[in-house]
User: Fold this.
Amino acid sequence: MDQEVGEQMGDKVKEMLLSEDVPKAKKCTVIGGSGFLGQHMVEQLLARGYTVNVFDIRQGFDNPQVQFFLGDLCSQQDLYPALKGVSTVFHCASPPPSSNNKELFYRVNYIGTKNVIETCKEAGVQKLILTSSASVIFEGVDIKNGTEDLPYAVRPIDYYTKTKILQEMAVLSANSPESNFLTIAIRPHGIFGPRDPQLVPILIEAARRGKMKFIIGNGKNLVDFTFVENVVHGHILAAEHLAHDAALCGKAFHITNDEPIPFWTFLARLLTGLNYEAPKYHIPYWVAYYLALLLTLLVALLRPVLQLRPTFTPMRVALAGTFHYYSCERAKKALGYRPLVTMDEAVERTVQSFRHLRRKI
Assistant:
């Protein structure tokens, strides 16, 4: 009997949370809410008193406080029910860059985002916050304390980034205070943290296979890595500061941990924290780059005969061997942004969350 009463009370709570009595300003939809960043976004929004819808191709978790809508991002018919009646949309859906699927990148990042914009307008959404990427201004050469005033990359490091540029341009150009539709882009860099399906698992798999022995360059190149909770914090601040008279409408903002760290030092901390050896042998940057370029050309020549996909590419060499860190000053001044979690704490929490991957000694 107690269990039945409890279940009825739970249903009532869910009904109240999803009812029209909740102020519209506190109603939002997270597109891509089943993903790594999306799940953390949902958790923080709920903690701050928001009513949350999730739109995705799959339901990645169970939560009675969340209403799930499943469908195709490119279908207005699928998307509209998830956006109707909400004031704010967080769009963080994107295929993983490692998938190397050009057709999927273009369809989701660009075509899908154009559908998000049009459906937001149809549904009466007032604010659209896009998860972009700081890499939209990166061309494989050093960027030190780069600002949002730097131009989009003319030669993006990969096709994924090219579609992120198209995506960001579409969202920011759709900003229209006259129509009560405001947009903003958040540019994180190197997102990591608990439940990350990419960085740490791929790094550990490479270490297990003996592929984490070499440091590209001198190992001193500083890079931004950003804890997932700080990325979410930046998104929510953007949503809460977005207003008709705000100077941030239609603009992009870098959100990082504001603690640039040598690329190889960061990887070493994750590896040693999980009982793996850190890379220790150096290979000159230019040697690695031209070897990767040669390998890429060789694979292209053999593609008609063999189905190969190189993992050692010029783009990855550039990401591992150059400086690329970004200024958060615009976000600090306009949004009041400060990282909630320091790099030391972030690395420790990430390592602890992946202790099941720890190497047994």
Remarks:
- The CA atoms of residues 254 and 359 lie 35 Å apart.
- The chain has twelve helices and 15 strands.
